[in-house]
Specification:
The protein is of the alpha/beta class. The chain has two domains: 13-160 and 316-334, Rossmann fold (3-Layer(aba) Sandwich); 163-309, Rossmann fold, CATH 3.40.50.1400. It has twelve helices and ten strands. The chain starts with 12 loop residues before the first strand and ends in a 45-residue tail after the last helix.
Length: 379
Amino acid sequence: MTPRSADPGPYDALLLYSFGGPNKPEDVVPFLRNVTAGKGIPDARLEEVGEHYYGFGGKSPINEQNLALKAALEAELARRGIEIPVVWGNRNWEPYTADAVDELERLGAERAVALVTSAYSSYSGCRQYREDLAVTLERRGQLDHTGSTGVQFDKIRSYFNHPGFVQANVDAVLDAYAALEAQGGAPAEAKLVFVTHSIPDTMEAASRISGATYAQQHLDVAGVIAGRVAEQRGHAVEWELAYCSRSGPPTQPWLEPDVNDLLTERAAEGLRDVVMSPIGFVSDHMEVAYDLDTEAMATATELGMNAVRAGTVGTREPFVAGLVDLLLERAALARGEDVEEATVGDLPAFRSVCEVDCCLRRDGEPSGVPALCSRDVSR
């Protein structure tokens, strides 16, 4: 449901908050140092990990894609006559979180709302962003037990089951089925494989405090997307959820199956046509460009499969319009209004004010790091 009011108040700025990525080869190792801070990983190992980036000229696609999303949001806000600046910041590369806070202060912002470029709730997709924001403010002497003493921050809820995100994915999958048919595949016999970033089993268990675990969130929205695709194409759609981009020691359990393992197993069973939908990602950044477009597509080719990768939601109109709807929804909630939070699927809307122990890295183990946008500045 589109909010009836186009008033973004009490917010006077929107923070587009993302992961970040290197812009040139010289950035790769420093960027990876930021990503792995505190883990004691030597630079020699980071150089090896960085080969994914060096293969793309040392530049991640994510920065240009975030700039494109920022521009699309600004255009949609202007189209609706909503006056609110959009400021971009990243956890791991320029412009850093501190740079974004500097820009918000320069603009005179008093209360900003954060839009994280992760649709799902987990430590990596929610709490870690809230922790980084709190730590940035703490280093500036702008944090106490009540929250920020400078610019105030709220966040937009996890939006995996918002109609705009879902419809944009449906449209992308339908385009992929059309492409599969155009290259001689058999769409009615194809398997739809939804793909997302794997996380450790311990993080998956801790994510349940949100109301549904990270994996359950994906399964719920995947079923909705597959159902809509089947309805519009006029044939049954068989689907599965797979994972990519696992890291860490081999002894640490992560969510499975890996997309390459799944393709191998299904090819052995006779599957020849597949559509991969990266529903865990909002843009075609490195996990998509390398893990899917390079590795998974190579696996499919070796197995003799007809494979097409659906696009991410990117700057598709339903997604961008949905994000603006979410901004207005959050603003109405902040004003104390009764709001019908728009969702699809079986899960309710997730909280915009997180529980104190929401999305810990490990179940029941507080990180000792403050986190904003929760019922208190928890540690």
